[in-house]
Amino acid sequence: MSEIMKDAVYRFSSxxxxxxxxxxxxxxxxxxxxxxxxxxYFADKSHINQHYQPIFGARYMAMKYGPVPVxxxxxxxxxxxxxxxxxxxxxxxxxxxxxLSVRKNMSPDMACFSSSEREHLEAGFGKSxxxxxxxxxxxxxxxxxxxxxGGRIRYEDMIEDSQKRDAIVDYIRQNASHAYx
Length: 181
Hints:
Number of strands: 6
Number of helices: 9
Strand content: 5-15%
Helix content: 40-55%
């Protein structure tokens, strides 16, 4: 009898998502919502490929303009559930149209990130900020986005082709539900 493998599903880290959003908006200028969402995607994808686990553990949906980490998007909009989850009454950012900007001048708490997570977050944000909207959209319409066909993007599909791909996929499937992000 063959064993049916479930998709890798992680527990979302609201603490890391909150800190990442706060850090992005604290970089000196308003941040385009699309750029911020894709920065999280780039960071999660590169981190899972290199370290076998994502940073945030968000549910990514294949939307028209690329992957959207659902919980992070909700947090960016200031939805009450996520404010409660991280123990704040309001966010230190505000969303004006499609731009995130600083609401309160306070430093983000980056202590929740490992050095590799911070490195990948910074790289993902830099990459996203350097691209145009169209370039970000094209860069995120890869195999993982296509395989989702308008639904949930699987972490397994984020793993790049390499000799280690099958081993990484097996590892994340076995460990995702037990991982503490």
